[in-house]
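User
Here is a favour to ask of a fellow structure person. I am asking you to supply a protein in sequence and structure-token form. Please set it down just below, with no commentary around it:

Assistant
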Amino acid sequence: MAHAKICGINDPAAFDAAVTAGASHVGFVFFPPSPRFVTPAVAASLSVRHPGGPPRVGLFVNPTEAEIAAALAALPLDVLQIYASADAVRAMRARFGVKVWQTVGVAAPDDLPADASGIDGLLIEAKAPPGATRPGGNARPFDWSVLAGWRAPAPWVLAGGLTPENVAAAVRMTGAETVDVSSGVERAPGVKDPALIRAFIAAARGNQNGIARRA
């Protein structure tokens, strides 16, 4: 059983459901092509609904320093989840002093990172399909068996195609201690369903290790 991060939150009902159901992290997507995109101002208005609570994670794709600075000026973020090279992710950590997770797309064992020096965590998901307009959030699982024998170089999160129905099996098969969901708790692209959020968290809960609540 695992901690559960709810990503792509963009409305009050979803934010409230994630917090009250016990999400380990809540995520805001700062990438305009995503149907889950929010501006820093919108994310800030949601975040203040529950002061304290789970860590806030900001998702960025090959961001500039200005983009991250604008988000941090609007609201405190506990973690920057970044789609970029490891060197770029480390540079953002050094620049802003905020913990960073690198998102890594996986299709085969060779895609799994062996080193994560200077990075606080890894988010492992399926590689984006050819022609995809965004690098993640495509509701695609990958072959979890590729994780067999992998010695993770940092705390890590399992993502990609997870749902309330399959998350328990994913945790059992991979040993993931933290799982991430976005489209798997939506009733339409970008529209979170509070009942599905609660069901996902209930199905995932259990193991208290991994990237803990204040990681």
